[in-house]
């Protein structure tokens, strides 16, 4: 014979009040679950301009914009936003060398610059972004020794860059800022 735990009716309202207080505290501090990106209406139609049309970063940004509800245009249109990726450089370099002359520490760096325009108006001034990953020789030999693993590290950096760019695109104004007088 099993016995059910004794639940006092006195504690039921206290639990409910405690749960409500915790919910109110979370709402009051601005906590929200990470959901889909809410793009600015200025980004409803977007053309991505990149010197290297086959850039993996440009493709990743296009996918993220589509998921957020933006229509990706193959050619610019009047009234559409143009996300111009002005610079994208991925570098690998040796950071530290051991006494035997062998590399002990490596660095991979992704540098980007981009801006958003519409009809010759600048909606988002040029933005720069630099992501850096450092790793030791043991890891570097595993990562850089196999191109597929190096590609995975570069993809992880591009994913981080796309998330940061999308967060900035949420705040693109619908009209260009007024010029300073």
Describe this structure in words.
By secondary structure, this protein is of the alpha/beta class. It has one domain: Lipoprotein like domain (Double Stranded RNA Binding Domain, 2-Layer Sandwich). It is built from 4 helices and 5 strands, in the order H-E-H-E-E-E-E-H-H. The chain has a 5-stranded mixed β-sheet with strand order 2-1-3-4-5. Helix 3 (137-145) packs across helix 4 (147-169). It is flat. It starts with 10 loop residues before the first helix and ends in a 12-residue tail after the last helix.
Detail the topology: elements first, then pairings.
Layout: H1 11-28, E1 45-50, H2 56-67, E2 71-73, E3 81-97, E4 103-118, E5 121-136, H3 137-145, H4 147-169
Parallel strand pairs: 1-2, 1-3
Antiparallel strand pairs: 3-4, 4-5
Helix pairs in contact: 2-4, 3-4
Structural class: alpha/beta
| Distance separating the two termini | 84 Å
Number of domains: 1
The second-level CATH architecture is 2-Layer Sandwich
Characterize the main sheet. Answer: 5 strands, mixed
Q: For the record, what CATH class applies? A: Alpha Beta
Task: Tell me the radius of gyration.
Answer: 24 Å
Mean pLDDT: 81
Can you tell me the overall shape? flat
Q: Can you tell me the residue ranges where pLDDT is under 50 for at least 5 consecutive residues?
A: none
Helix run count: 4
Helix percentage: 25-40%
CATH superfamily: Lipoprotein like domain
Number of strands: 5
H-E order: HEHEEEEHH
Strand sequence of the main sheet, in spatial order?
A: 2-1-3-4-5
Beta-strand proportion = 25-35%
Oligomer: single chain
* Fold-level CATH name: Double Stranded RNA Binding Domain
